[in-house]
Amino acid sequence: xxxxxxxxxxxxxxxxLQRIIQDMGHEVAVASDGQKGLDMARQGGxxxxxxxxxxxxxxxxxxxxxxxxxxxxxxxxVVVSGYPSPEALGECEKLGITDFLTKPFExxxxxxxxxxxxxxxxxxxxxxxKGQV
Amino acid sequence: xxxKTPLGIPxxxxxxxxxxxxxxxxxxxxxxxxxxxxxxxxxxxxxxxxERALMLSTRPSQDLVITAESLNLPLAPAxxxxxxxxLEYNEFVPGRDHEANIMLPPDGFIQLKEIIEQQAVNRxxxxxxxxxxxxxxxxxxxxxxxxxVRAFERLGVTALFTLPKPVSAPAVRLRKLVEDVVPVxxxxxxxxxxxxxxxxxxxxxxxxxxxxxxxxxxVMHKGIVQHTVAPAAVPGRTxxxxxxxxxxxxxxxxxxxxxxxxxxxxxxxxxxxxxxxPAGTGRASxxxxxxxxSAGGARPTAGAGIPPPTRGGSGRGG
Lengths: 133, 318
What we know:
Number of domains of chain A: 1
CATH architecture of chain B: 3-Layer(aba) Sandwich
Number of helices of chain B: 9
Largest interface: A-B, 14 and 19 residues
Radius of gyration of chain A: 13 Å
CATH class of chain B: Alpha Beta
CATH topology of chain B: Rossmann fold
Order of helices and strands of chain A: EHEHEHEHEH
CATH superfamily of chain A: Response regulator
Radius of gyration of chain B: 19 Å
Strand order of the largest sheet of chain A: 2-1-3-4-5
Number of domains of chain B: 1
Distance between the termini of chain B: 34 Å
Helix content of chain B: 25-40%
Strand order of the largest sheet of chain B: 3-2-4-5-1-6-7-8-9
Shape of chain A: globular
Structural class of chain A: alpha/beta
Largest sheet of chain B: 9 strands, mixed
Distance between the termini of chain A: 25 Å
CATH topology of chain A: Rossmann fold
Order of helices and strands of chain B: HEHEHHEHHEHEHEEEEH
Number of strands of chain A: 5
Shape of chain B: globular
Oligomer: heterodimer
Number of helices of chain A: 5
């Protein structure tokens, strides 16, 4: 069992993601905006972070990914987003996200995506992050 | 070099080499233009190549089997062996049409995805794709269409979507949204009073498309064949192709196209055939699948080769 962090502001979306991931047998934590996501990620221990791109508040999804990437370069990030702008896509690519799933249909592949990541990473159990996020 | 996969329409394949594998192709046309038949050819071609196939249709499965048989595209053996799955759109689920739920992936898609994955399906026909891309509010339509096409591509299947011919500006926009994200788009037309129909390639990524298109007929025991000029009539013989309307849909009225269904359909999706939810279910929302599944050892009924549906389809295919 791995710990997965979902950062998503739309309740219907995170509820679905949560259901799919919990059905896989993993533990799920949810943050409803970028700041909360950042705070939770700082505590470390997440095998995968699943994040939206567009979120309200001071820290957008893209900014969250930037900060996470700087502090936890090894943590796989799966982006779940609506129609992405070419700029956002390019930025995500530069930041080295692991997968990009579009809402609403493609995000149902989150299970496949996480399975693939965990298979590649080996057994879950990421140590808490010691760096500054 | 990308190796294409045949569409299953010989004259199209001879000119274009088929369609792109693991991508989506779009077929548009009004009711009776031959969209469903293109889908049946596509399925039959896949079965010929030992692929596994799935067709989700607004038509009852038995009708598809009978239609295919009449065109010498036998489906029943493939259904019995489990290499073909026929699914019917079922009723639209009341209560699921709240706007808050619209961005949820329909349970139907998850269900469909599971069937495709479990049965290792290679070819999929969605006839029609309209219920998946109809939203009361068109604001999210582009991302919705984009996501659906990407989802099918991620499934690793070669898919054929059919869409009724658009007859309003918003419906034209809807078709364009789909066309923009698929590599191949074909439109079919049938002129009143003529047995010949036309297939026009609107888009073929990476190739120059001709402007003339193909003239074709739907011929009993042969299916879709390229139109040839009939030789001079010989008394006592006829070489006139048999139209699908007379071959397989003798009960379909041959009167001019009915007007577009206005009522339960959202204003952005006026199309030329009634692929709408059944009357009384309110506005269109996501389609609930399923579905009367015909595959994997289902005991065939006499003649049709598939079990009878418990509920009818929600509209007509083309």
